[in-house]
Design a protein that fits this description.
The protein is of the alpha/beta class. It is built from 11 helices and 10 strands.
Amino acid sequence: MFYQIWLRLARKISRNRYRRLVALSVLVVAVGLLGIRIFEFGENEQFTSFGDALWWVFVTVTTVGFGDKYPITVGGRIVAVLVMFFGIGFLGLLISTITGELFDRKLKEERGMKQIKAKGHIVLCNWNFKAEDIIRELRSDPKTDEIPIVIVAKTEQKPVDEEEIFFVRGDPTGESVLKRAHIEEATTAIVLLDEEVEPESRDAKAILTVLTIESLSPQVYTCVELLDPENVQHAKRAKADEIVVTGELSSRLLVRSALDHGISEVVSELVCGLYGNAFYKVEVPSSYVGRTMEELFGLLKREYNTILIALEHDGKSVTNPSLSAVARQGDRLVVLAEERPKFEKR
């Protein structure tokens, strides 16, 4: 009989779990307080105030049962039975509901089924052998060490279990998948090659991913990986902001290493932020505006142990700029340093 009552109640609660559960829990507490007020006040010296009744109800509902207060009248004991029976049941339902909800959320998160609500995040499209190194590099830089990263890939489960790294399962060429990654609020998208498709189709899929991203969120800065340099123009038409041709870079690096031995080790250090020196791009501080490159070369090396590599003006970078070139407001400096420099205001 009791089992059937609880089964019917559980079915009703499951249709609108939280609202019904809270309402019924409040009802149990209210019945307990009212019952003690009616039957015990004036008859039982243990209950002299509302606080005494409230304490007894909570101790009873939570099954603690200190025994410091208890009803002595028939009516009070009937109320106690009702509070114990329904209170324990609702507490169990509450705990199981919360536990089930947490488990369901964790399961959805691990399987990439949740809607991501991050803002100002980085979206990493596709998962290949480079992805873990990319995440490690992003986390090593103070600029991105705390920025949320959303992985969008067709893997079965979340490939990396770390804080502030989220997972959306699916093909990043699909609009609905990218919307679940909250691409509209992202700042940067890194599009890797999908190694699950045929090599001749990988560039096409990467460009299609860029097209989808740009159609949904044109302000997102897209960096795309390609295999064939002939596809660079297609990626530019798709409005990719930055294109890296991996095959072309490796072949050129091999040639330079063959001509000047040891170059590959130097380049590896320069593009890796995990050890040694690396390249960084920083905005020209207001105190540096109007200064020549000759001044900045000496100042940066002397005070920050930093080497000036290039000057970016109006989106165009000039490596090894002329000593007479002047830094303007809004320009950026590409520098070589052990860590991202933080220039002091002067």
